[in-house]
Every structure is written in C-alpha cells, then in structure tokens.
Amino acid sequence: EPLCRSGVWRFHELLPFAKPEQIVTIGEGQTPLIETDGVGKYIGMDPGRLYLEYEGMNPSGSFKDNGMTAAFTHARTIGATKAACASTGNTSASLALYCCSSKLMQAVIFIGSGKISYGKLSQALDYGALTVQISGDFDDAMHRVRQVSEKLGIYLVNSVNPFRLEGQKTIMLRVLESLNWEVPDWIVVPGGNLGNSSAFGKAFHELHTLGLIDRIPRLAVINAQGANTLHELYQGRGLRWNEGSPDQSIIDKYYAELDAAQGKADTIASAIEINRPVNLIKCLRALDCCDGVVREVTDQQILDAKSQVGANGMGCEPASAASVAGAKLLREQGVIAPSDRVVCILTGHQLKDPTATVAYHTADQDEFERVLGSRGVSRAQFANR
Ligand code: F0G
C-alpha cells in the first residue's frame, strides 16, 4: 500500500483531513533517527544520549516534504491548479518536486535576490518551476507572495498554510516511534519561519491529550544571531503565549524598531535568514506547551557544529546545524544535563549549500573571520573568495 511507504501518511489517522485515495505522496518521511556519540561528545552529552533526526534524507533533501505532501493533498481536495511560495530555497525545491511529480499543479516561486544557495535554486529550475527573483530578502518575498496569491487565487504552500504543519507533526511521531515511544527530554530545532516548532508543539499536545504519551518533552528553538526575532522577543522582552493573548504591542514595537533601523536578517544559515517569522504566535503556543527555551547562536558556532555533524558521517546544511550548536550552548549553560536524552533535528541535506562548507574548510582563519564579520556580504562575494 503506497500509504505505508510514506513516513507521513502511515500516520494518516492523526492528519484526518483527506480520504486515503486523495493523498499525494512521493515516499517522503523515510528518515532515520541516528544515535551518535561523536556529536554527543562535542555537545557534552553522556554516551547514548544524543540523537540526530536526519530530515535531509527526504526526496527533495529537506524536512519540507513532510509538509508539502499534506499541502498538496489538501490542494487536491479543493481542486487548486497553481501553487506558490516564497522561499529561502527548500520550500521552493519541495514545491517544484511535488508539482512535477504529481502533475497536479503549476509551481510559482518567489525568492529574494542573492541569498539562495545554488543547490536549492538548481532544484527549482530543473524541476521546471516558474521562478521569480524579487529585489529584497525573504521577508519581502513573503509579503509579495501573500499579496499575489490572494489576488490571483493561487494556492499558498508556505507554512502559513496550516496543512503543511499537519504533515510536519509526523517528524515527531517518527522520532517517538524510533525511541519505542519513550519520550526524550529535549527536542532541539532551528527556528526560521517557526513552522516546525509550531508543528512539533501541536503534535505533542495532541499525543498527550490522546493519552499516547505520558509527558511532553522540552522544546528548544535555536535562532541564528543575525535573524533572532524569536530570541529577542521571547528571551529578551518576555513575550509569552499568555493563554492565547500574547502582548501584540511587544511585537509591534519590535518590528517598528526593525523598520526604523532598516534591519535586515543576515546569517550564513540562509535557510533561516528571516526577521518576520509567520508562525510566531503558533510557536509561542508550542513553547508554552513544551516548557520551551529559545537561544541564538553565531555563524561561527553554526559552522563549527556543522563540521562535527559531517565528521561523524552525516552532513547537513548550515541552518540545520543551528540545532547542534544550540544544544551545545544549552549544555554549557547547564540547561541540558549530560544524562538528558536529546534529539536534534537536521532539517536539510549537506549538499544543499556546498559553498558555505567549502569556504569553511579552505579559508584561512583571518580571512574567514573578515568575511563572516562584514555584514551584508552577498552569497556571490562569498563564493568568489
Ligand atoms: N532548516 C532548513 C534547512 C530550512 O530550509 C528552514 C526553512 C528551516 C530550518 C526553518 O524552519 O521555518 O520551520 O522554522 N526554510 C524555509 C524555506 C523558510 O523557504 O525553505 P521553520
């Protein structure tokens, strides 16, 4: 049965919005949970306590396929013919793959200028998606695609789409399944548009309500320092879910400050280079449900962590390594204990962004720090070094 071959639709009872015959799947979600003492030692864990959930093994090379299969299935139920997204590269690669595989919809992709890795862009182009580059960054592209899709009635597959998050819940179901339904102490995940963290919170809330788990793991969401809206609002300014009434004035004030300073997100982890996460409020709910913490890590910490993941035989793109860097930081701060059972999510494959990897391993230290330190350095400039 095709549904059994999908790591998402094996759990279709927990995503009850489509009939089995309507499901669109390309065999996503067959991803391993890997116990690794090598990376565990780097973080400071006791042996046998650190696991990496390797979502880069999805058909398009990132966790996005978990959500895309659900969005496509929903789009089919309503008969949509075109689908759009703004993307830092992975959502667009996933959308383009599902479009050309299923032949159900035509893909329209909005990307910001300059800040998309060639690995990701080449996927969208090869899969035949209409790809529009706009002047501006991801936040500008997101704004534009929301306007365009509303005006033209195009189906939007960014994680503002709640069906995407239903699919992404299954990442946690597979983690629990791999651990024989023994709940880990921590889930550590990079934070960009905050879709994953929101979906994970919803998954745990539902599983707990259904009585399938007896406790809820703690959630750690890790921002890159150059794109740290959640960290600033949650840790810095005390923004909380507050039983469904988060203080909107804290958010408005922060965004007004960003506008005034013309603050643009800037990090080597281009996948999470986002200043205005669309799932901010849902993520607050997840943090509330999972006794969450938020941390920020530097580009240097991200790339150091990434090289450790690679050196232990896995490999991931920079944004994914934020989870490992964040776990190390939380361990150093004593928030995570060495004996805790910790699961870090590796969201995207190593081959997504080889430029960052090669630069890290070849530049001499002074040069590397100079490049990292000069804010606003474009991908092309970086590639030319
Ligand atoms: N890791 C990778 C590899 C990503 O591509 C993204 C998001 C994230 C982490 C952040 O996840 O949004 O659930 O907090 N990439 C989006 C994109 C924005 O357009 O591909 P999140």
From TrEMBL:
Molecular functions (GO terms): L-serine ammonia-lyase activity; threonine deaminase activity; threonine synthase activity
Keyword Transcription found: no
Domain Tryptophan synthase beta chain-like PALP: 25-348
Requisite cofactors: pyridoxal 5'-phosphate
UniProt keywords, alphabetically: Lyase, Pyridoxal phosphate
EC top class, as a word: lyase
Designated name of the protein: Threonine synthase
Source species, domain of life: Bacteria
GO biological process, one term: threonine biosynthetic process
Family statement: Belongs to the threonine synthase family.
Portion of the full-length sequence here: 77 to 461 of 480
Positions of modified residues (N6-(pyridoxal phosphate)lysine): 64
EC number(s) per entry: 4.2.3.1
